[in-house]
């Protein structure tokens, strides 16, 4: 079972990649930096969801 944090984190990570690319294409360094931050936040949230899901699998609590 996929944890909701995995889905939300993946979406935020993808949005960050888009924002970074758009910022780079338009020369907007602030947008590019925000995109990079969003990617890190998204990856962290996604990994949290994976760990949370793994713990649930190990303990048998769903």
TrEMBL record:
Residues 5-57 form the CsbD-like domain. This is CsbD family protein. Belongs to the UPF0337 (CsbD) family. Pfam families: CsbD (PF05532). InterPro entries: CsbD, YjbJ_sf. Residues 1-56 have a biased composition (Basic and acidic residues). It comes from Jiella avicenniae. SUPFAM superfamilies: Hypothetical protein YjbJ (SSF69047). It comes from the Bacteria. Residues 1-62 are annotated as: Disordered.
């Amino acid at each position: 079972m996929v944890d909701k944090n995995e889905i939300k984190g993946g979406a935020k990570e993808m949005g960050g990649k888009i924002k970074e690319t758009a910022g780079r294409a338009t020369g907007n360094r602030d947008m590019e930096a925000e995109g990079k931050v969003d990617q890190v936040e998204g990856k962290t949230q996604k990994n949290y969801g994976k760990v949370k899901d793994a713990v649930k699998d190990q303990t048998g609590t769903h």
